[in-house]
Amino acid sequence: MRPLLRTTRSADALNIMLTAVEDFLPDDGMTYIEPFCGLAEIPFEREIGNCSLNDNNPYIINLYRWVKSGKFLENDWLITQKTDLNNWAKNRTKFNKLVSKGTIDTVEVAQLTFYLSHISRFCNYGTNGAFIGVHDPNGELPDIDWDAAAALMQNWELSLGEYTDFAVAESDTLVVNAPPIYVQQWNNVAWDPSDHQALFDWLESRSGRAIVFHRKRSVIQKLYADWTEGDRVFQVV
């Protein structure tokens, strides 16, 4: 099943991730655990039924929760599905108005999150939670089997928060999709080497196994390669 949100990874990069995880998680019955789930590409592509997923972006987690509930389209679409610039701008404005009112955990925001992900060239969120993006004139809304997605996600545990607060056992096996360096993430924050060092220290303090995917940057590659001697870290772009 394709991920619900638009991915910017190349097919080659995604294939590297999927192949690496196949070798890393030989037991199909174990729970797949990811502290930075984001687009949840691996769980969707591999159709993993038992997952514990965390992210600090409330819009992503809200979308997944509504889809899991089976109520994402219970009352049909509450927003326009037209993808021209004018309608995209209307949806962006609607999203930002709802967010400014503190209205986040609604199906309307979930639908807008899905829409803006696919009809925008990039998706960033400012310090007030507002959507910052550029209209993609070639963007299209994919056909999703929402019932199949809900069925797949029934045994997914979805957690919202920082990875350090993620409720996992010290011995659990983790799949870590490390945030890119110097690229704005949720809440207009860009990770830097010190953030990766903190993640490195957190992983080092655990007794469980971990595999790390990261976007290529020499300073980050050296940090993780020193930890793993190159056998548990994969560069993906």
Helix and strand topology:
Blueprint: H1 11-24, E1 32-34, H2 41-46, E2 51-55, H3 58-69, H4 85-100, H5 107-118, E3 124-125, E4 131-132, H6 146-152, E5 156-160, E6 174-177, H7 193-204, E7 210-214, H8 218-228, E8 233-235
Parallel strand pairs: 1-2, 2-5, 6-7, 7-8
Antiparallel strand pairs: 3-4
Helix pairs in contact: 3-5, 4-5, 7-8
Notable characteristics:
237 residues, alpha/beta, three-stranded parallel sheet, 38% helix, 12% strand, globular
What do these coordinates show?
- The chain is α/β, with parallel strands linked by helices.
- It is 38% helix and 12% strand.
- The protein contains 8 helices and 8 strands, in the order αβαβαααββαββαβαβ.
- It has helices at residues 11-24, 41-46, 58-69, 85-100, 107-118, 146-152, 193-204, 218-228; strands at 32-34, 51-55, 124-125, 131-132, 156-160, 174-177, 210-214, 233-235.
- Helix 4 crosses helix 5.
- The model has no long low-confidence stretch (mean pLDDT 89).
Order of SSEs: HEHEHHHEEHEEHEHE
Would you identify the regions where 5 or more consecutive residues have pLDDT less than 50?
none
Main sheet overview: 3 strands, parallel
User: Span from first to last CA?
Assistant: 21 Å
Summarize the structure.
The relative contact order is 0.16. Helices cover 38% and strands 12% of the residues.
